[in-house]
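Pasting two entries for a bug report.
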Amino acid sequence: MFAKKTPWLRWLVIVLLGNGLYFYLSPYLPPAARHTGFKLDWGTLVDFWFCLVVFGIFELVAYLQGRKGRSQESGRN
């Protein structure tokens, strides 16, 4: 999907989706996993983890799409 775009645009989408997911689910997270103002806390780490999960999903989709394309090309021989 975003594999051919510039990397910063892809990273921006990943960070925005990860942060959006974190803030959407933050009312359901334990209090220790929520941000408490403008400081470094466990909420920052949990937010980073959400972004990392979204990054992993993007990479998995790109990998599977590439593998699917290679298998279709090899079937045409």
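Entry 2 (this is the one that rendered wrong in the viewer):
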Amino acid sequence: MTKPAQNLHRNIVAADPEQWSKQSKQSVAFHFKREYVDEPYKCYRCGAACTFTAQDQKYTFEVKKASIDQRRSLCAACWTESHQLQAALSAYNGRWATEKSALRSNREFLSEWLDLLTRWKQFAPYKQDVAKISMLLGLLKLDSPFS
């Protein structure tokens, strides 16, 4: 299929840059973007073929006020899983902050937290919490992959 033929099958939705966030209104796109077009992409985690639909773009940029420079990189399933992991990690961080002395010897808690941090690497390998991972490995008396 040629490029022009592919474009015939894409959805197009009118853009209203006046509805964008303050930051997005300062972008060059503010003066030129008149429509959203379905944008195919590949989930970087699982490799699934996905589409950032024109309608999703309109909602993302005009209702949620996300930056116009934002691009999708995760499929819906991986995005949901990443947010669940973030919420779980936040809960573990919160418990650690308030119950550290009791949790230092709780192997179940420490192992679960380490597992969450290890799983998080799949979603954001550039955002590893090396210090926490090393601390948990030390408390669990395990060898560090960083040494």
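Dev reply: Rendering is fixed now. As a check, the viewer should reflect this: The longest helix spans residues 76-103.
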